[in-house]
Amino acid sequence: LGDVYKRQQIFLSKPDIRKLYPNSVAFAYEQHYGPVYSASHSPFERNTFLTSSIDGSIRVYDTLSTKALLNFDMLNQYIFKAQWSPTRPSVFAACSSNGDTLIFDLLSNMKSPIRVVSNQKPCITCEFNKKQPDLIAVAYEGRNIKIYQLPTDCLL
Length: 156
Fold this sequence. Notes:
- It is a single chain.
- By secondary structure, the chain is mostly beta strands.
- It has helices spanning 2-12, 17-20, and strands spanning 36-41, 48-53, 57-62, 68-73, 79-84, 91-96, 101-105, 115-117, 123-128, 135-140, 144-149.
- It starts with a helix and ends in a 7-residue tail after the last strand.
- The model has no long low-confidence stretch (mean pLDDT 87).
């Protein structure tokens, strides 16, 4: 009975709802200069995610920091999708408006992609194959889809 009375008193006093239920997100992440088209959490590091934007940048963030850990600026192209590899923690792929599928390996090169697969049509999305890690599916503008086999240095 005492517990019920205390709860009634709390709600009868009409406290500020923001103090009772504070926002769990206390900060916002460093913004891109254009709309963000994708976000991908790392399957290996629970606090790491990456984003892609039509401002031509790919950013790697730690969920506990507002600033980007890494920023890749791919000039003169939009980045529609960025996706972590399901088998290698340092590898991710990105799709660009100029038709390039960019493969990055943060252990090999923290400034630019280690592989570029080119096509004439804009690359819209990509997805690593979780069961066959050497394959990546890429969709291009105009209903074209291609499967590429990645070199072994992207997998080991």
